[in-house]
Design a protein that fits this description.
The complex is a heterodimer of chains A (about 120) and B (about 110). Chain A has about 120 residues and is an all-beta fold. In chain A, about 0% of the residues lie in helices and about 50% in strands. In chain B, strand 6 and strand 7 form a beta hairpin. Classes of the chains: A mainly beta (about 120), B mainly beta (about 110).
Chain lengths: ~120, ~110
Amino acid sequence: DVKVTQSSRYLVKRTGEKVFLECVQDMDHENMFWYRQDPGLGLRLIYFSYDVKMKEKGDIPEGYSVSREKKERFSLILESASTNQTSMYLCASSPLGTSGEDEQYFGPGTRLTVT
Amino acid sequence: RKEVEQDPGPFNVPEGATVAFNCTYSNSASQSFFWYRQDCRKEPKLLMSVYSSGNEDGRFTAQLNRASQYISLLIRDSKLSDSATYLCVVNKPNFGNEKLTFGTGTRLTIIP
């Protein structure tokens, strides 16, 4: 069974803290994604990786960085958390397809609150 | 104009009824289209891809109208278990097929 796991379901951090969100997939997928989901705004892509050590900016990369040292693991880093980064963070993975039909598989999400 | 636009609802529909959602997209160069389903407090999951000729999966029918740049989802004989938020998803052209734009979702509640 396809599996994407995220390190925490709920996280509370203080403004200015460095925050690490971890995502692991066991499907040997090349592509991995980080999104945030906010009411009224939907899912927005933060960063995307198509291979180890490769990354691309999504629509809202400001204030975030990512790391992909191993194929199965993709980390999202908030260098200095701010209250406007309070959100639901969703990780996803997909195979490297050429047809555009490939499903993205999502993890259960991490609800981050920055106080 | 938003890249992908959906009526947020909520749609409250009696069990057994037929319900349809539309979604419009702004970039005519988009090539891949999907409907995802998201249950309350859960992650999104692929419901179905949308093909140019239209496609059906059981009680679900998806249609694509490229000329008008809209996608539709029809649910027949609705069940209580169909209650969820339905996300319209379109690929970002010129960024490969992997990058997707998600609509904000249409909330559906099936009433017994």
